[in-house]
Model the fold of this input.
Amino acid sequence: MQNLTDNQARFNRAASTWDENPARAQMADSIASAMRAQVPFDNTKTVLDFGCGTGLVSLQLQPYARRIIGIDSAPGMLAVLDDKVRGSSLTNVETICLDLCTQPAPQLHADIIVSAMALHHIADIPALLQTLVQLLTPGGFLALADLDSEDGSFHADKTGVYHAGIDRNWLVAQLQTLGVHQISAMTAHTIERPSETGPRQYPIFLISGNMPVLPAS
Done:
């Protein structure tokens, strides 16, 4: 039997009912809309969605791209996305089951790389960012959405959770170190949950930027 990481096992277990959470669908709607507002999607571009899960964001971007490539390490999540792609007879969406943190990157390049709520499940974020930047075409765009730093109360089940949110200023600095230009940061969505002291808000940021086109030598 395949040995699964904590992340893979967790998301495989959740895959069949993942889309049934209305708050999750609403968050994906907000993130996809913010990405489209910040990044120039069009039907000439290849888009890579890292940590695509069941495709809640990918499928909202699909009408605005030539090709969508969803990458995820949990085969159960990708099976749900593949079923949706077949059910809708989509021809420009494909999936790759791959752990970019431990396996070689695919032999491809993307004009736009997006990710939604995946980074806090990654132990070594700087190493992953370097891989993502290497997969970008010159002039390509990154759009990364995730949970702002919090006190650890967001996840009841912390299996596979390596970070209690991410400091958006730290992430901007990491991208600047990798040569990403024209970086912008915004709040794409806010999740509100009850707590003992009243409603608790958890902001979701979107950070976007692009790689410059290097002059011809």
Q: What stands out?
A: The two ends are 50 Å apart (CA to CA). Residues 22-38 form the longest helix (17 residues). The longest strand covers residues 181-193. The mean pLDDT is 94.
